[in-house]
Amino acid sequence: MPEIKKNGKRSNLELKMTYLSDDSLNDSHWDIIKPKSLVIADAYLSGNVVQVRRGERSLCCSNMLLFGVGMNIDTGEIKQKLKSADFCRVRLEPICMHRKSLRWKARFHEAWPKIKEQYPTARYMHLVLTVRNCDIKDLRETIKQMNTAWNRLTNRKTFPSTGFIKSIEVTREMDYCDKCKGSIAKRGTCKNKNNHTYNQNSHAHIHVLLQVPASYFTINYITKDKWADIWQQSLRVDYKPVVWVSAVKPKKEQESLEDAVASAVKEVAKYCIKFDDVIEYLEKPGGLKWFLELDNQLEKTRAVSLGGSFKKFMSEEEPTFEEMLTPEDENEEVAKVLEYREYLFKNLEKKYALQKIIEVKNDEIAI
Ligand SMILES: [Zn+2]
Ligand SMILES: [Zn+2]
After folding, report:
1. Hey, which of 96, 104, 262, 337 would disulfide with 269, CB 3.0 to 4.6 Å?
2. Which alpha helices (H) appear in the chain, and where do they start and end?
3. 178 C-alpha vs ligand 2 centroid, how far in Å?
4. SS3 83
5. Cα 12 to Cα 14: distance, rounded to the nearest angstrom
6. Distance from the CA of 138 to the center of ligand 1, in angstroms?
7. Spacing, Cα 186 to ligand 2 middle (Å)
């Protein structure tokens, strides 16, 4: 961050060629995500009338960011915090998807003391439930069937969970070469990769973070095979669906269980589609058609749902505009405001550049 003079002001000369990433390393992710957002906006602009409107909104998403720059009175540390942005709130637009997932994570942290108090010995696991691939045109119907099956699963007497957070992720299906057609394991390292081509099918799967009693991992353990069996029964299908299960544990020694579970909450809440994948789909034949149909099929479907202890202590509502702006509770910090900084996204440089500095009066506090 360029040095701020004693009186906290910078001259207008310094405005030239100052970028958000220079001023605040923590905010450099904006330069990465905005170009991705523009790719998605462009795809929307090729759609029907409703989608063109979504494209126009996405194009403008977070073009201007206003940060308050403050100095912590105790430590003297200088920090900037987002104070205003134009979020488009379009379902598949990357910036808004990211901001919403931050809010889900923060909601979990806020609920954690109560969850911990009521379920002090609970453990957590990540479950992925899949179904056979379907034509992208049948996605809405497939999701409906998956949700019905999920309700059957959770209503079983033997369902081990005391709470969950769930979402549905969709990926684009590929046609594989003869060598790895039948083997998921071989696909990653296949030498014939160039012959794999995307088609118009979709692969929908449920991602769920489950809270389970500690006894789940000792006396009541459900094997992966057993999960596949009960998921098959819940789906009422004649094939055995693929499932994945893994325990959620702190990844390193310093990480707390709370942080490990919070990361899992963020992962689950951000699913629906990985935007890096979408950008790849769009580069391949038929990608645009697939994406626009995906948007159409997902219309009015719920992104994230909660159950049990999670529903009891966390809001299930879509994060609001204000919550996206300030996903975390900011009570902890009171700082002396030095100035407000306005950054604009520059298409040429693919960076947010400092546009304007708005001075504040000396006695203004609390950003
Ligand atoms: Zn947006
Ligand atoms: Zn292959």
Report:
1. 104
2. 20-23, 29-44, 49-60, 94-118, 139-155, 184-187, 224-235, 257-270, 275-283, 287-298, 308-313, 321-325
3. 7
4. strand
5. 5
6. 27
7. 7
Separation CA 313–CA 107 (nearest Å): 9
d(CA 366, CA 71): 10
Q: Which ligand is nearest to the CA of 93?
A: 1
pTM, entire model: 0.88
Ligand nearest to the CA of 197: 2
Ligand 1 centroid – CA 170 distance (Å): 20
Q: Which residues contact 271 (CB under 8 A, 6 or more apart)?
A: 167, 168, 169, 207
- Model pLDDT for residues 48-103, shown as the tens digit of each residue: 999 999 999 999 999 999 998 888 777 778 888 899 999 999 999 999 999 998 99
Smallest-distance ligand from the CA of 188: 2
Q: How many CB atoms lie within 10 A of CB 295?
A: 21
CA of 60 to the centre of ligand 1 (A): 8
